[in-house]
Amino acid sequence: MDASQYKDYVLTLLFVKYVSDKAKADPYALIDVPEDGSFDYLITLKGRPDVGERVNVAIRKLAEANNLQGVINNADFDDPTKLGSGKDLQDKVSNLIGIFQDMDFSGSKAEGDDLLGDAYEYLMRHFATQSGKSKGQFYTPAEVSRVMAQLLQIPASTPKATTVYDPTCGSGSLLIKVVDAAPHGLTIYGQENDNATWALARMNMILHGNETHVIEQGNTLADPKFRENDRLDTFDYLVANPPFSVKTWKNGVEKDYGRFDGFVTPPDKNGDYAFLLHMVKSLKSTGKGVVVMPHGVLFRGNTEAKIRQELVKRGYIKAIIGLPANLFYGTGIPACLIVLDKKDAVSRTGTFMIDASKGFEKDGPKNRLRSRDMHKIVDAFVNQKEIQRFSRMVPLKEIADPKNDYNLNISRYIDSSELEDIQDLRAHLQGGIPNRDLDALQPYWDAFPSLRAELFKPLHDGYSELAVEKADIQTTITDSSEYQAFAAGTTDTVAEWWASRRKVLADITRTTRPNDLIEEVSEALLEAFRPRPLIDEYGVYEQLMSYWNASMHDDVVLIVGEGWDPVAKPRAARTWKDKNNKTKYEDSHFVFGTGANAKRWVMDLIPPEYVIARFFPEEKVNLDDLVVEQEAAAQAIEEYIEEQVVEDGLLWDAADDEGKVSAKLAKDRLKAAKAEKAEAEEIEALNHVIKLFAAEAATKKAVKEATIKLHEQALAHYGKLTTEDIQALIIDDKWGGTISSRIGAEVTALGQALVARLLTLAERYEFTASDLDAKAEELAAKLRGHLVAMGVSE
User: Fold this and answer.
1) DSSP helix, strand, coil percent of the chain (3-state; round to 5)
2) What is the 3-state secondary structure (H, E, C) of 178-210?
3) Is the Cβ–Cβ distance between 135 and 127 less than 8 Å?
4) CB-based contacts of 258: which residues, under 8 Å, 6+ apart?
5) What region holds the N6 adenine-specific DNA methyltransferase N-terminal domain (predicted)?
6) Nearest of 238, 66, 247 to residue 169 by alpha carbon
């Protein structure tokens, strides 16, 4: 099946398993799970000929008990067109139930980390990616959702009764991210037009622990569900990612419900401002909202220009944030975030603008905001920071100026275009490197005050020349005391930051909330690097967060779930049968023996290299020396064979058709050569290569034996590890070592960037135009001389 089909089956069983586990663990659970509608009941159906039909009945009973008809019972587990028929359907449904059987969702979200929600989100992203434009718009990328939630700046003390509303809620992911940003939760309201997507939103809410919610189905513009008579209800917070530029937005719209009071009616063929004005009207007098819109709303003319002018004059638009292109699944065009804020709107004197269009990473066919990009956007907005070529507060006077005429296109106010690398004609004619190009590297000279004078000396007005050889630029930089001090200072900053947070990490228990933990640790890292010159604190932050997302988060979840000591123990590798009934083995750290009788061990938390490095350093050095000997023995064979396996070479007759020589081939040829009374040199060469093969075999055996012994020692040592040992291995060696190395790479990259730029400038202006003319004349003279010598010219 494609994603649009299998998601229904997977999400349905995910839902049934989740609510069943919750009901068993919590007698006060809000979802009523009847005995014959539970996941435990589904387990009893595995293998039955009528398993598909009975699963349908069980899920329908669960839906009826909770008024979820049409929400969780849309997948047909007895559909032969999708699942096959007879034994095929029976096995597929039974196996699918079995996949979920061993999972335990009773503790989901108890530790503040939404693993189940992450699984749901993964499926939604996969579905949106595969389904393309037709289904992409119902899912807002998680990174954009998180930014939008933080832009609302919800105070920590906000009570749960505070309302949040999404008039085009899709699968509900945006609403969930906003609720997660409020420590006490919020009261959720939403509306979604598409019936299948509305069902997803309902399931999503329950899977994320938001059982109490009001998500209505229907067309928001034609039939808004949240209204009193002909006036729209209002809410404290609002988020939305409406469909872009709907040409048929007026279909079924008979009333405007006060949306357009004080504004002109949006154009018939474009619904962007119809949605935006609906949202403005849906906010309380102190309400805040963040809305995704196409860039066109910022600059299109005619009716939309009049609406935009009125919104700006009323002060409703607090900020505009330009996002990278190709972020969203429904479209590849760039979008923007419009931050609405009615509180003190009349006294607003400007709009804060951010051009975040350059900050992203490629993720398959789409772009994605990185942790550093998200944090930089939020920091700039919250602190109203003016960052060159990124953000600034644009006064209302400037927006209203006739030359701009309320055009809000961000490029009018922030120039984020790439700086042009200008070729200097005077430098090409007279020599030297323009000081203008060197001045552009001022952040480096601020960090390394003496380095510019070491590298360059004045040549003539406005130009300099290298004071060192071009080939020595890199060593001059990296060997300078200031660069070394900068690198050491970075290492010290990392060490001080890590030491200041070590106790927080060592105190991880079952009550630790992983997301809160990384927020504390990462914010401290940002603060530690903000005062440091040159190095970008957001680049350092990204190094930590990318490691957190890739590995450290999973480690913390393991520790939270099982505790330091239990999770550090080795476990036997898992096995399973593939479709051909062949036994497959999980990738293992240690394997003793071969085949089915081999003992395979997996270390989830502490890979063996850390135990070996800390407790068996001498043994590791000895093993490394043996590996070097083995490689040298193999190299000696390769070189000797390459030298002698040539036509009429001493090993020519020992080689196979591909020119390869093995120990067996050499021995066979030696036996034949002796019988033939071949030349002594060939016999000597064969004896020599046989000795080389024997030496290699001996080193291989030594490496194998030493490896097994070291692995046995390390495996045995896991049982001797104390809690303090485990924490040292994880916190200091694994986490701390990895993060320190990653941040060190940032310093290396900065040095490499400076070297690359200076080499470019040095090579660009190495020769003047007259130098090149002289060289050309010299080469032409040489050519003429050669032609004369050849007799083809006089």
Assistant:
1) 55, 10, 35
2) HHHCCCCCCEEEEEECCHHHHHHHHHHHHHCCC
3) yes
4) 230, 231, 232, 281
5) 1-97
6) 238
For residues 691-716, average pLDDT? 96
Identity (one letter) of the amino acid at 176?
I
| pLDDT single digits (tens) 109-162 | 544 455 666 777 777 777 766 665 444 456 788 899 999 999 999 999 999 999
Overall size of the chain counted in residues: 794
b/e string for 91-107 if b means 16 or more Cβ within 10 A?
ebbbebbeebeeeebee
Between CA 579 and CA 411 the distance in angstroms is 57
User: Which of these, 78, 108, 100, lies nearest to 10 by C-alpha position?
Assistant: 100
**N- to C-terminal Cα separation, the chain:** 80
Q: Which of 354, 361, 360 is nearest to 411 (CA)?
A: 354
Model pLDDT, residue 196: 82
Kindly give, in sequence order, each residue whose CB lies less than 8 Å from that of residue 57, ignoring residues fewer than 6 positions away.
none
Instruction: For residue 476, give both structure tokens.
Output: 């001059």
User: Cβ contacts of residue 455 below 8 Å, gap of 6+?
Assistant: 466, 467, 468, 473, 476, 477, 758
Residue at 273: amino acid letter: Y
Burial of 674 (0-12, 13-18, 19+ CB in 10 A): exposed
pLDDT at position 117 is 62
Token pair listed for 6 = 């299998």
B/e letters for 573-610, b = 16+ CB within 10 Å, e = fewer, are beeeeeeeeeeeeeebbbeeeeeeeeebbbbebbebeb
Whether this prediction's pTM lies above 0.70 is answered by yes
The C-alpha atoms of residue 782 and residue 285 are separated, in whole angstroms, by 85
Buried b (16+ CB within 10 A) or exposed e, 340-370: bbbeebeebebbbbbbbbebbeebeebbbbb
Q: Where is 239: in which H helix or E strand?
A: strand 235-240
Give the span between the Cα atoms of 494 and 344, in whole angstroms: 42
The distance of Cα 509 from the centroid of its chain, to the nearest Å, equals: 27
Joined together, the tokens standing for residue 448 give: 């390394």
CA dihedral 641, 644, 647, 653 (to 10 degrees): -70
Q: CA-to-CA distance for 369 and 144, rounded, in angstroms?
A: 7
